[in-house]
Write a structure and sequence with these properties.
about 210 residues, outer membrane lipoprotein receptor (LolB), chain A, twelve-stranded mixed β-sheet, 4 helices, about 45% strand, globular
Amino acid sequence: MSSLGRATAGLVLVALAGRTSAMAQCPGIENLKAPPVGGYSEYKSDRGTMRLALVGTETRGTTTYIRMEMGMTSQDGPMVMQMLVPGYPYEMSGIAEMVMQRGHEPAMRMPQQMLSMMASRMPKDMLSEACRNSHMTRVGEESITVPAGTFNTVHFHDADKNSDVWISSDVPFGLVQTKGTSGGDIVLTARGTDAKSSITGPIQDMPMH
């Protein structure tokens, strides 16, 4: 994943609604809700563009999963990563499927063995982990204008990194703007409710090496 993708994914985890332990670390985010299927947000930074979307749900056994998709465009070209995960915020330790597609290359599904190995190394509650590591404090409520419109937001500041995040319950996935983060300044450029999967063509199984 690109540096933009890694940084933004972490910020999205901070911005999303969470469990009680996470709320204690990130006060003010408890009112955010999961977007409906089709909900998406698009972002731009000096490193590229990004689209976050919830493109479907699926039940396996007694567990309901969501299909979370992250599309990125950077100097390395376009890339789409789709994850089938339980819960919201998503729990990487319970990931059931991951598909990746770079440019016009075939979409590849990660082997279960590799997926299980990756999931076993993830914290069960990534939101709580992200909040603990962010050292963010709530500044207050602010109305800000970005390319996607004007939003009432909650502003958080990380004094250690001199970075800021603005989130809103009116935006799918919450994130409206960041400044001073490791992923560069990020701003919301569009949002909507009609997202479809960006994965194209048949999905192949990724070979084990």
